[in-house]
């Protein structure tokens, strides 16, 4: 029998159970209000932060960096899920019946699919970013620019990876149902069939274990490479500038790993436990916490870029001041002169550039 036919014949046992026990699945009114308030903050901060990220990365000084397309792709993915994914869940919970299989089947499938697809595509993008950074930093040649066609291919791959990971529930291999909190949809983490369990374990592997393993390996090799570099010839000031740049790269990498683990580890752990036990391990109210931590991923990247990247932060300040294209500076005589973004920085940044190292060509 075709897998697609299985999903269209009659509601599964889990669906029937979810539909008949709807009041027990949903948290109390206080929990719903708290969830919606936190989601509103995530939506607002995430949208503004990622729009500003796109504007910053569109400026001249960032366009030619290998890492920029990946940062841009992450920002676009976050905006997609903020605009098309999360609001569906929030709006459904304003209704009297809430988000459930029986009354909101279409919304449940849509929110589960788009949230999962965009989330895994973002993780895949972060993984490819780490591989590209390792390749660029450790490459012997100074030519580290990735061809445009190859970059487009990598970006497309991340999206295909994310979408394909969430297609099986659409064709009958597992299903999208409200999660333990009852106010957000996801794959059924407590399936009654071995096939459903197999899909869940596969999803955990391709969506968390494999990307995290590659990221940790790549960043560990980057760190070891930077630490193993012998002192370079030249003035002490140039060596100090280069070493400071390398340390900043390592710190930003560490923050990216921390944000990734913080966002997805609790949700993944709870999901694995539900699959093993065959039932939810958290109450509806407490199940909101790992769900919200995973959804808060959309606000972390702009914060990491701003806190850990001086060039990004300087450009952001010009964006906020509406001076991305032209900015004004006052010379010592008090006269105003216009400086374009192509101009050299002002006095504080007029130190002659050291020979361009591979770490600076990436970030």
TrEMBL record:
Q: Which residues form the G-protein coupled receptors family 1 profile domain?
A: 49-305
MF terms (GO), sorted A to Z: G protein-coupled receptor activity
Instruction: Recite the UniProt keywords alphabetically.
Output: G-protein coupled receptor, Membrane, Receptor, Transducer, Transmembrane, Transmembrane helix
Q: Which stretches does the entry tag as region Disordered?
A: 1-22
The record's subcellular location field reads: Membrane
- Has keyword Membrane? yes
Annotated TM spans: 32-58, 70-89, 109-132, 152-171, 197-219, 252-272, 292-308
Nucleotide-binding is among the record's keywords? no
- Protein name (Swiss-Prot/TrEMBL): G-protein coupled receptors family 1 profile domain-containing protein
Q: Which organism is it from?
A: Pocillopora damicornis (Cauliflower coral)
């Amino acid at each position: 029998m075709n897998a697609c036919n299985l999903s269209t014949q009659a509601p599964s046992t889990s669906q029937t159970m979810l539909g008949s026990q709807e009041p027990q699945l949903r948290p109390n009114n206080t929990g719903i209000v708290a969830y919606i308030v936190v989601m509103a903050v995530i939506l607002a901060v995430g949208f503004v932060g990622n729009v500003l990220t796109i504007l910053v990365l569109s400026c001249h000084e960032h366009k030619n960096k290998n890492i920029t397309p990946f940062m841009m792709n992450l920002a676009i993915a976050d905006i997609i899920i903020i605009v098309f994914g999360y609001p569906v869940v929030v709006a459904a919970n304003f209704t009297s019946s809430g988000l459930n299989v029986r009354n909101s089947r279409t919304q449940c499938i849509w929110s589960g699919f788009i949230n999962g697809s965009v989330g895994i595509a973002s993780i895949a993008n972060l993984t490819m970013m780490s591989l590209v950074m390792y390749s660029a930093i450790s490459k012997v040649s100074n030519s580290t620019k990735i061809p445009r066609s190859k970059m487009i291919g990598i970006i497309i791959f991340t999206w295909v990876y994310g979408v394909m990971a969430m297609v099986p529930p659409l064709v009958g291999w597992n299903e999208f149902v409200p999660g333990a909190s009852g106010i957000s949809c996801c794959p059924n983490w407590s399936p009654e069939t071995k096939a459903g369990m197999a899909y869940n374990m596969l999803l955990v592997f391709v969506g968390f274990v494999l990307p995290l393993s590659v990221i940790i390996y790549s960043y560990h090799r980057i760190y070891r490479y930077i630490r193993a570099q012998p002192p370079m010839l030249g003035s002490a000031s140039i060596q100090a500038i280069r070493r400071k740049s390398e340390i900043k790269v390592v710190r930003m990498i560490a923050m990216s790993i921390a944000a990734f683990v913080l966002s997805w580890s609790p949700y993944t752990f709870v999901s694995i436990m539900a699959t093993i036990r065959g039932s939810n391990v958290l109450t509806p109210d407490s199940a909101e916490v790992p769900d919200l931590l995973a959804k808060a991923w959309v606000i972390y990247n702009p914060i990491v870029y701003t806190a850990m990247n001086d060039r990004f932060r300087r450009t952001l300040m010009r964006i906020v001041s509406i001076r991305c294209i032209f900015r004004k500076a006052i010379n010592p005589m008090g006269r105003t002169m216009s400086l374009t973004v192509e101009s050299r920085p002002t006095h504080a940044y007029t130190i002659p550039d050291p020979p361009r190292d591979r770490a600076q060509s990436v970030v």
